[in-house]
Amino acid sequence: MLELTPLLADAGSNLLAARYQMAFTLGFHIILACFGVAFPAIMLIAEYRGRKHDDADALLLAQRWSKVVAVLFAVGAVSGTVLSFELGLLWPEMMNRFGDAFGVGFAIEGIFFFLEAIFIAIYIYGWKRLPGWAHFWSGIPIVLSGIGGAAAVIAANSWMNTPQGFELGADGRVSDVDVSQVLFNPAFGHEFPHMLLAAYMVTGFVVASVYAVGMIRGRRDRYHRVGFIIPFAVAAAITPVQLFVGDIAAREVYDDQPVKFAAMECIYETGDNQAEHIGGICTDDEVKGAISIPGLDSLLAGFSTSTVVQGLEDFPDDEEPPALSLLHLSFDAMVGIGTALLLLAAWFAIAWYRRKDLPDTIWFLRASAVAGVGAIVAMECGWIVTEVGRQPWIVHGYMRTEDAVTGAQGLWWVFAVTMLIYATLAVVAAIVIRGFARRWREDEAEPGLPYAPPSEGRGR
Amino acid sequence: MSEADLVAVILWVGITLYAVFGGADFGAGMWDLLAGRERPRDRRRRAPLTERARDQIDRSIGPVWEANHVWLIFSLVVLWTAFAEAFAAVMTTLYIPLALAAVGIVLRGSGFAFRHALPGPVRGPATRVFGVSSLLTPFFMGTVAGAVASGQVPADGNGDPTASWTGALPLLTGAIFVASAAYLAAVFLVRDAGAAGDRELQRYFARRALAMAVIAGVLAVAGVFALRDEARFVYDGLVGPGLPLVVLSAVCGLGALAILALGLRREFDRRMILALRPAAVGAVVAVIWGWFVAQHPYLLPEELSIADAAGAEAALTTVIVVFAIAAVLVIPSLLLLYVLAQRDVLD
Hints:
The complex is a heterodimer.
Chain A: H1 4-9, H2 14-52, H3 56-90, H4 92-129, H5 132-161, E1 166-168, E2 174-177, H6 179-183, H7 188-216, H8 222-256, H9 258-265, E3 276-278, E4 281-282, E5 287-288, E6 291-293, H10 296-302, H11 324-355, H12 362-388, E7 393-395, E8 399-400, H13 401-404, H14 411-441
Antiparallel strand pairs in A: 1-2, 3-6, 4-5, 7-8
Chain B: H1 3-34, H2 49-61, H3 65-82, H4 84-93, H5 95-115, H6 120-149, H7 168-195, H8 199-230, H9 232-239, H10 243-265, H11 270-295, E1 298-300, E2 304-305, H12 306-309, H13 313-346
Antiparallel strand pairs in B: 1-2
Helix pairs in contact in B: 1-2, 1-3, 1-6, 1-7, 1-11, 1-13, 3-4, 3-13, 5-6, 6-7, 7-8, 7-11, 8-9, 8-10, 9-11, 10-11
């Protein structure tokens, strides 16, 4: 309750409305972005298997997945366009003063986004137009531009956390830019791999969970098995790497963004031998109700209990992130879910190693069925840590979020309308994709698509 | 030409490509809306004209609509990276029409993506959402362009949030955007329907293209008077250094009009179809570049010049390099896509 008071106190302010709006639309878009980045690779693995081993099930899966990719990419493209409007509509002062540096990553992203949009269309058209392996190769640029686009956008985001590579003129605006310094800022090194792997985990676990549900409902044919195993194996192989990268990321945050580190670990007093708090509520000066493991935080941050970790007391009150409990619990949830997914992946690996088969219990399928949602929650929690943990700064150390926000009226109305539209979009997208699944099960005519050539089933 | 001028040209190239290709997409959505209600299918007879029109619209924009709209993002990114001050000024003044355009983009893109995939009963509303937002989005973008041209956006931003875009010129510009989009779309569809061998449908779109050409022409003439009253600087530029482009636009527009009228009286032959698209596109593109020349050296007329708005040199260089790479990588890929898509139209 303590933290709600400041929220309610300035509930009428533009700052809060703009932050909610940005958080909501970004949180929505990032899920679609994950699919845009990672689903094409999983779809190509299925096509490769289908062509290389004459696996009709895998080839059919690749075809069907490409239709889901088309719809998700279309919605992701519009929700991404909204974000580029919002950068100007909500945060004009940041764009005004820092657009020269902040925009560089986005300019590069433009190329990748273009290529991805073009080759997704070519790939989907190509099912009927391009011969066998040529079609497979037409998908490779989608995968590469997905990775490149993610790198470019993360470069812009990580620059807000660890800004460098520019000089400020007398008017407070960026006057000189060093492009490679801007792009390869300190936080980029861990944010990019962490997010790229997260995209593959989210996509892999979500797609696998769909087939896990099908198998729980008794559809245990080979088609469902292949549909489960391909995405699950990708996600399972990536999970241990992700935990390793995440561990490095935490240490880099400790080095480069000490306030964020103190906030996410709920460390108040500077010193060595810091305890790792798991769970709990972070009040203004202490953590309550957490399970605390003595010395572990220092050990994780610097491989020794004598590692000194700065506490929040070292930083001025008006430079600390808000909502400490939210930050801390989000961090714990991300790590906790990641660990649970690692156990699930290990379970799968052991069974596969022993008998070349899935674990022979419905509990494995049940766990896999919720792994998709879990991966999304973990990814969103990670973004809460990154973004809320940067507050009250929009460009860390240079510009406060409150100084960047627009003076426009009616932001709460805009937020309400946005929520309504996005909620409708999410429901409709779910109906559409469920409709695909139903029609595929009943082997009806192929559903129509925003890209595909007119299908035979449309009575033309 | 300075580096800043070169980047301004790149920005205008992006705007032009968006206006032509994105505009035609919006226009196709309007024709879809105006085609009327879908009638139940009768399998024994040929599908009714409105339904064939809808199918043709889908086939024509289906493969390319997404790529076409990347030009908008491209233009926004160039604006905020190279001319951050102008971007902030526009965004803090014209946030109402810009927010409405953004809503329109969301509804339009998702309406189009979903409508075929949705079950029967919800398909109708999704189609209408697609159509209505195809009409409103270019209108609001037009008001933004009109407001900029009439000098309503102060260099340091925070201009009047309502009066800036509700004058006669911005509203008229919005209407011109809508009419031009519908016009371009109808012209493209004349060609595609002909390529698909449907003469009746070709005439259907040709009549609409002709009507829209007249409407857009009348609006453009009214726009000239509004420019003289509300955007004297741009007006002077258009009748001065921009005059050759205005004349070119008029010649192209009249040429396209003549081809359409001739084709409707007789039949469209190969040469007419070949000349129609460049003429129609030329009429629109010449106006866009006439505007650029007319307001040069300003980005926001009489408020902020290209040179003053230009950001750090490295940011400008990045935009130029990115554009060069895009030209090398994206254009061949786009051509491949257009060829594949056109092949499908031909099937």
